[in-house]
Amino acid sequence: MDKPLISRRLMDSDGSLAETPSGTPKEQAVSSPEIIFVAVFREHYSSLCALSDQLAGKILVDVSNPTENEHLPHRESNDEFLASLFPACTVVEAFNVISAWTRQAGPRDGNQQVPICSDQPEAKLSVSEMVHAMGFKPVDMGPLASTREVEAMPLRLLPGWKVPTLLALGLFVCFYGYNFIRDVLHPYVQENKNKFYKLPVSVVNTTLPCVAYMLLSLVYLPGVLAAALQLQRGTKYRRFPDWLDHWLQHRKQIGLLSFFCAVLHALYSFCLPLRRSHRYDLVNLAIKQMPPPACAPAPACPSLSTPGFANKGYLWDEEEVWRMEIYLSLGVLALGTLSLLAVTSLPSIANSLNWREFSFVQSTLGFVALVLSTLHTLTYGWTRAFEESRYKFYLPPTFTLTLLVPCVVILAKGLFLLPCFSRRLAKIRRGWEKDGAVRFTVSTEHVLPEKTSHV
Amino acid sequence: MDKPLISRRLMDSDGSLAETPSGTPKEQAVSSPEIIFVAVFREHYSSLCALSDQLAGKILVDVSNPTENEHLPHRESNDEFLASLFPACTVVEAFNVISAWTRQAGPRDGNQQVPICSDQPEAKLSVSEMVHAMGFKPVDMGPLASTREVEAMPLRLLPGWKVPTLLALGLFVCFYGYNFIRDVLHPYVQENKNKFYKLPVSVVNTTLPCVAYMLLSLVYLPGVLAAALQLQRGTKYRRFPDWLDHWLQHRKQIGLLSFFCAVLHALYSFCLPLRRSHRYDLVNLAIKQMPPPACAPAPACPSLSTPGFANKGYLWDEEEVWRMEIYLSLGVLALGTLSLLAVTSLPSIANSLNWREFSFVQSTLGFVALVLSTLHTLTYGWTRAFEESRYKFYLPPTFTLTLLVPCVVILAKGLFLLPCFSRRLAKIRRGWEKDGAVRFTVSTEHVLPEKTSHV
Amino acid sequence: MDKPLISRRLMDSDGSLAETPSGTPKEQAVSSPEIIFVAVFREHYSSLCALSDQLAGKILVDVSNPTENEHLPHRESNDEFLASLFPACTVVEAFNVISAWTRQAGPRDGNQQVPICSDQPEAKLSVSEMVHAMGFKPVDMGPLASTREVEAMPLRLLPGWKVPTLLALGLFVCFYGYNFIRDVLHPYVQENKNKFYKLPVSVVNTTLPCVAYMLLSLVYLPGVLAAALQLQRGTKYRRFPDWLDHWLQHRKQIGLLSFFCAVLHALYSFCLPLRRSHRYDLVNLAIKQMPPPACAPAPACPSLSTPGFANKGYLWDEEEVWRMEIYLSLGVLALGTLSLLAVTSLPSIANSLNWREFSFVQSTLGFVALVLSTLHTLTYGWTRAFEESRYKFYLPPTFTLTLLVPCVVILAKGLFLLPCFSRRLAKIRRGWEKDGAVRFTVSTEHVLPEKTSHV
């Protein structure tokens, strides 16, 4: 009895092969099996037309994918094209999202699902059994017309990261320009000082923390807006506006970009003492700090090593020392807390936590990180917002701009902790609705999760 | 034929819905399905009492969880309460450990298991089939009385981390106090020097490595104690004392906390040259090091740039230089090795290693990390344990306190490598028992693993 | 009816145990079950010989593994030995690759597969059902003779890492020796300067980046060679030479080692300002830079604080400043990009990406990292390759040696982007073959993936 060659290898244990059929190698290859995997590119489908007779009545499984250039919305999919070339065969699409490496190494957690499309239920069933035997999970995606969407699946390129990355880049460009004007252009214009050497490291290092801090606050702002909206509407059953919904869904990506910028900021900060400019600044400061030798007649010539003389040269600004000690310590603590958030974002760790643990790390520890970052920024700023010399071209110090959104978030969260608000919010989140709250019509269609496929 | 609405969507492909039933929206919603998911909070169960007639004979699946405040040991669970409200229905608990996100995104590795409790086997079977169809793994947890334990499952908050975190915090507080007394209080009391600026960064940076080092030694100490116990008892079949058993189970958390403290120590160390206090110290050192200009009559006035003069000012302590070079290098190597241990602790990587590989990294490389950390501490200490000036208020240098436990572990491991001990230990671990060793009674109950659930 | 004791616990819910059998505890334990798990070491198998009668006709599941010393190619496996001791029993090998921890905690993604070997298909089926019930995936590995290979599986010790690690160590030793000769030996021999203190940190820190950079280029070189080979042969259907095949398979390990060395290089670099030698160098530089006090008669005695005097001591080399700023910035960016590659190599993240996303990160971002590293090295070198003083013992500066392979890779990739080459390569990779290309004979044996097991 003819069984598919692949299923014979996987399911039988008798080890016997069918009798060697006659004909060309291609004809021999396709004559015995019931299921043929067509692993050729679209432009070579026609090379199989010579085998139309042998292929009649068999199941053709197409595993190909169009490239980004070829995948056009109104163009028929590879499977539809194959079906038009071989009308006597049944075309099934399967395995097109599974990479060659995964097919060889075996299924892993994220790559276990194999979408299957076909017009014939029996063909779908046969291929599903084969998928099961190989250790994957078949997912019925409907008729062959669905293949256009299925072919789009492996063409996605980190779709959830596009907007957050553009946001981060935009913030970087804005803050870099602002810091350039304040730290490089202003000294050049006003005092004719050449500070352009600051561009590669210094200005970058004052821009990155702004980006990281802003992004971190943008992770927690939508939650605050959502709570405010629920309080104002008096119900949790009204859908959020689309922009808020998308924002809530991209918090993880925004948070990870914030962490990445924070790490780069740390690396750049640690590079500061390695630079020649730093070395020269120190040496020049030491030279400037040297008390002048008052060259009087010999007996009265003071020595540098006498206490009085040494004290004149002794350099110490207690306030500056404390400022740096505190804000460096707060910065390290903020980075340490952010790293805990980043680590628990890893899929394998996130999956091993239950909801309460995940919420504790991401919400509670995350808010702690936001507060530490705010204290780090405030201590870095110290009194600089109130010193006139810090206003270049009447532009305020950069850190003042970054404090706006985070302080709003922290104040709002503090406000929502007040009993009057927290009790009401808890009631609303447990299902209570105020009278006259506009209801969201529940239809049986929406009882089920939006996505029927399991990906 | 009436089938559950959800199963119709998932299992049928005919797409036809039942005729629209009559009555209020709620009555319409509950009249046709056999299985109803009750997704309301406990306090709103009574709102369904009006539907008692329509719900009679159906299966109610409760997905709710009490909060930490509501979950009390002697209080009946949500499911038992629901069952008491609707005695004509069969209550099944399912999906209460699965977060809403997982239900929407689909099952991943750690979140695949769905505990199911019910008094009726047929109801359990129906719900299990539904769970299977959604891609999850149903796990039978027994009758409805088990729901109290099941409801406790998502309320756990990192239970394995409580004791290690308290231990780390306790060690930090102790060492911070000790270093404060030595580095800040002693100069203030004895020499009236104000070193309080050291509190945020310096004292923290001398405390964190002590905590990290002690925790690392506490990861390997229980293994040594267990080996000693097996050697002394002459058998491996006697259970360890409870405290040792718990200690052995928490080694991973203690190790990860040790790594976290070591990383923070590295970050604080790299912050040291960024501080103003460091800059001022360098400048003051340069000024102090300046040889005095002996202002004699002009012809005899020496110039600073003459070799003889410059050599007077040249600062170099060969021993100090070597000490720092060596202990910094050892510190980086120890941190690098610890990072390998931390990375292989990630679930996805740990699962891809076999036992021999995992043991090589965690035991062998871990011991290498302990030895490198010990050398780092010894080289940092150098001869300071023998210098009287290092004893503040007769308190020894902090590093001497930390060396105790690690040296015990290293010496013990070295001892167990001697043939007389290693051969005996290998025999015991392969099943040999010395005569008169107290046997642990093997009963058939204990043949099976303690946990029947697969979580 | 006698059922296996384990299956009774897992599959039945009636809770009843069989009547307590008579005899010694061992005889009682083995009399009722059909499947006995033999969890003893090989040398203790004979202790079960007394039970031969009770064991007759039952299934013995052997879970043991030989150690590395015991596992010899020509020695019979533990299962074959067990089968020879109990000819009346059926021996099945199962669970030998699953650690005790996994058996207790339950199956996770990488550890779900249980290889099963036996000569009897019915025995294999019974044990497979048990494996399924426990949540694992049974994999048929053939007859008992296959147990020698199966027993080798848990004895592997990171086989894919041996060659890359030896390669990295070899590169490290070579470059360390080269840098030692240039930076320590040459000053000692030529100028009698003692620079041996540089050995622990400085020389290591000039060696590690060379190793990291070379390894990174060796990740992308085989891809370039493979493309060149395909262009030259005019087909993609000829197998690559074995050495190239192995090289392509180990790119991930080589890349991760490169990243590890890059991180260590960053840590050592950040340690540079912490060292005493650095502090002394700065102080001595400040002292040397001090302008001499021209001790002339009092009225003409200049003061250090006068501008003219300060400018004499002012230290600034604009070119050196720019050089360091640029190459430090490029270094941080290169490390940041490499960290993205390392993070996406984690199994859980790699599995959540589709092929296009994975290829974007590993190929495109990886090439960006290679270009950034090359710019970092070139900027570090600046004009040093053209300064005669940099050639110690006629040996060129180390960075020039490292630039060879990466520049070949970058130029080749640039070349392959030219339309004449890129179009031809795309055609070949879509299946086109030039006339006369030597065909690789396709046999039906090779249609299927090489590994039938799913690991």
Q: Nutshell version of this structure?
A:
Chains A, B, C: It comes from Castor canadensis. The structure is a homotrimer of 455-residue chains. Chain A is mainly alpha-helical and 455 residues long.
Distance between the termini of chain A: 37 Å
**SSE sequence of chain A, one letter per element:** HHEHEHEHEHEHHHHHHHHHHHHH
Q: Helix segment count of chain A?
A: 19
- Low-confidence parts of chain A lasting 5 or more residues at pLDDT below 50? 1-20, 296-312, 441-455
Number of strands of chain A: 5
Order of strands across the biggest sheet of chain A?
1-2-3-4-5
Helix content of chain A: 55-70%
How big a fraction of the residues of chain A is strand?
Answer: under 5%
- The average pLDDT of chain A is 82
Structural class, judged by helices and strands of chain A?
mainly alpha
Overall morphology of chain A: elongated
Oligomer: homotrimer
Major beta sheet of chain A, specifics?
Answer: 5 strands, mixed
Radius of gyration of chain A, taken over Cα atoms and rounded to an integer in Å: 33 Å
Largest interface: A-C, 70 and 72 residues
Protein name (chains A, B, C): Metalloreductase STEAP3 isoform X5
List keywords for this structure.
disordered N terminus; disordered C terminus; 19 helices; 455 residues; five-stranded mixed β-sheet; elongated; mainly alpha; homotrimer; 5 strands
What does this structure look like?
Three copies of one chain form a homotrimer. By secondary structure, chain A is mostly helical. In chain A, 56% of the residues lie in helices and 5% in strands. Chain A contains 19 helices and five strands. Chain A has helices at 5-11, 25-31, 52-55, 78-85, 100-105, 121-133, 147-152, 162-191, 199-233, 242-249, 251-271, 276-289, 307-313, 318-345, 347-352, 355-381, 398-402, 404-417, 419-429; strands at residues 35-38, 59-62, 90-93, 113-118, 137-140. Chain A has a five-stranded mixed β-sheet with strand order 1-2-3-4-5, sandwiched between helices. In chain A, helix 9 (199-233) crosses helix 16 (355-381). The longest helix of chain A is centred in the middle third of the chain and has 35 residues, at 199-233. The first copy, chain A, is elongated, with a radius of gyration of 33 Å. Chain A starts with a helix and ends in a 26-residue tail after the last helix. Mean pLDDT of chain A is 82; it is low at 1-20, 296-312 and 441-455. Chains B and C meet through helix 11, helix 12, helix 14, helix 15 and helix 16 of B and helix 1, helix 9, helix 11 and helix 12 of C.
